[in-house]
C-alpha cells in the first residue's frame, strides 16, 4: 500500500513538473487563456452544451448508483446526486482524493444505511468508472489508429494490473478454506461484499448500472467538445470523449486540489496525439479545467447547503475515527 502511494505521488509530482514547463512554454496571460475565456463567454450555445452535458453526466451516474444499490424504488434520486457533487467539491478543494469518503458518509446519513454498505456501493461505482474509461480508451485508440499512444499503453497496463489483483485475491480466497466459514472480522466483511459484488454485477441490474456508467462518461465529453469547438479545433465528438477518458484516467496521480497539473498535462498530451499544437491544446486544457472547477464549487456548495451538512460532520467523514457512528 505504501509503495502504491509513493508511486502515485512520484507520478503526480512528475506531471506537476511537466505542467510547470507547459505553463512556461505556452501560458501568455490574456493573449491565450484570456482570449479563450472571452470566446467561450461569447458562445452561449457551447456553454449551455457543456453545462447540460456535464450536469446530465452526474444525473446518469446517480441513476446507475441507485440502480446498483437496489433501492431505486424507495430512494429519491437527489439522495445520490448530492453525494456525487459534494465528493466533486471535496476533490477540488483538498490535495488528496478523499471525496469518496464524503460521498459515502453523506449517502449513509441521508439514506440511513450502514457505512460499509454505502462504501461498498461507492467502491463498485469506481470500478465501473475505471472499466468504462478503459473501454473508451481502448476502443478510441484502436479506431483512431493510436495503438502506440503512450496513454493507451498506460490505461491498458492499469487494466491488466486490476485484473491481476482480482485474480490473486480470488486465488487467495479459495486457497484459505479455513477462513471461508469465518463470520467474524475483516475476512467475513470482505467475503460478504465480494459475494454481493459478484451476484449483482452478473444480474440485469448490474449490467444496466454498468451501461449507465458508460453513458455518463460519454456525456462528460461535452466539456472538452465544447471547449475545442469554441477554439475552432478539428476535434469531433468521439475524439472529445476519448480525450476525456484519457484525462480522467490520468487523475490516478491526483496530488493537488482538483488534480491541477495532472489534468492539464494529460489533456494537452491527448490533444497533441490528435495533432493539436501544444499552445492551443494547453489553452483548451486550462479552459476546460477552469470550467470544471467553477462547476464543482457552485454545485458542491449548493448540495452541501441543501443536504444541511455541517463542517464538523464533513470532517468526521474524512477521518477514520468518525466513521463508526455512521454504521447503523
From TrEMBL:
Belongs to the LPG synthase family. Its EC number is 2.3.2.3. It is a multi-pass membrane protein. This is Phosphatidylglycerol lysyltransferase. PANTHER family: UPF0104 MEMBRANE PROTEIN MJ1595. InterPro entries: L-PG_synthase/AglD (IPR022791). The gene is mprF. One of its GO terms (cellular component) is plasma membrane. Catalyzes the transfer of a lysyl group from L-lysyl-tRNA(Lys) to membrane-bound phosphatidylglycerol (PG), which produces lysylphosphatidylglycerol (LPG), a major component of the bacterial membrane with a positive net charge. LPG synthesis contributes to bacterial virulence as it is involved in the resistance mechanism against cationic antimicrobial peptides (CAMP) produces by the host's immune system (defensins, cathelicidins) and by the competing microorganisms. It comes from the Bacteria. Its main location: membrane. It comes from Paenibacillus taihuensis. It catalyses: L-lysyl-tRNA(Lys) + a 1,2-diacyl-sn-glycero-3-phospho-(1'-sn-glycerol) = a 1,2-diacyl-sn-glycero-3-phospho-1'-(3'-O-L-lysyl)-sn-glycerol + tRNA(Lys). It is an enzyme of class 2 (transferase). GO terms for biological process: lipid metabolic process; response to antibiotic. Keywords: Antibiotic resistance, Cell membrane, Lipid metabolism, Membrane, Transferase, Transmembrane, Transmembrane helix. GO terms for molecular function: phosphatidylglycerol lysyltransferase activity. It is found in: Cell membrane.
Amino acid at each position: 500500500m505504501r509503495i502504491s502511494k509513493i508511486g502515485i505521488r512520484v507520478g503526480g509530482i512528475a506531471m506537476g513538473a511537466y505542467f510547470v514547463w507547459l505553463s512556461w512554454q505556452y501560458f501568455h496571460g490574456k493573449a491565450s487563456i484570456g482570449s479563450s475565456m472571452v470566446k467561450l463567454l461569447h458562445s452561449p450555445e457551447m456553454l449551455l452544451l457543456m453545462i447540460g452535458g456535464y450536469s446530465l453526466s452526474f444525473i446518469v451516474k446517480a441513476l446507475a448508483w441507485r440502480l446498483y444499490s437496489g433501492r431505486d424504488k424507495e430512494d429519491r434520486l437527489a439522495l445520490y446526486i448530492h453525494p456525487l457533487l459534494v465528493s466533486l467539491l471535496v476533490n477540488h478543494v483538498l490535495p488528496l482524493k478523499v471525496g469518496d469518503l464524503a460521498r459515502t458518509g453523506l449517502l449513509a446519513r441521508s439514506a440511513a444505511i450502514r457505512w460499509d454498505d454505502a462504501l461498498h456501493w461507492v467502491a463498485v461505482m469506481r470500478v465501473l468508472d475505471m472499466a468504462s474509461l478503459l473501454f473508451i480508451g481502448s476502443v478510441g485508440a484502436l479506431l483512431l489508429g493510436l495503438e502506440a499512444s503512450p496513454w493507451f499503453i498506460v490505461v491498458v497496463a492499469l487494466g491488466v494490473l486490476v485484473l491481476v489483483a482480482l485474480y490473486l485475491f480470488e486465488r487467495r480466497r479459495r486457497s484459505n478454506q479455513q477462513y471461508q466459514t469465518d463470520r467474524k472480522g475483516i475476512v467475513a466483511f470482505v467475503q460478504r461484499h465480494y459475494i454481493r459484488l459478484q451476484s449483482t454485477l452478473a444480474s440485469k441490474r448490474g449490467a444496466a448500472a454498468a451501461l449507465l456508467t458508460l453513458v455518463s462518461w460519454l456525456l462528460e465529453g461535452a466539456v472538452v467538445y465544447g471547449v475545442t469547438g469554441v477554439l475552432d479545433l478539428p476535434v469531433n465528438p468521439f475524439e472529445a470523449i476519448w480525450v476525456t477518458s484519457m484525462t480522467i484516467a490520468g487523475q490516478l496521480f491526483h496530488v493537488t486540489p482538483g488534480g491541477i497539473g495532472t489534468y492539464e498535462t494529460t489533456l494537452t498530451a491527448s490533444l497533441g496525439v490528435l495533432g493539436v499544437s501544444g499552445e492551443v491544446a494547453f489553452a483548451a486544457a486550462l479552459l476546460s479545467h477552469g470550467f470544471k472547477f467553477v462547476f464543482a464549487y457552485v454545485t458542491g456548495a449548493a448540495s452541501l447547503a441543501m443536504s444541511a451538512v455541517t463542517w464538523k460532520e464533513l470532517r468526521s467523514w474524512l477521518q477514520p475515527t468518525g466513521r463508526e457512528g455512521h454504521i447503523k
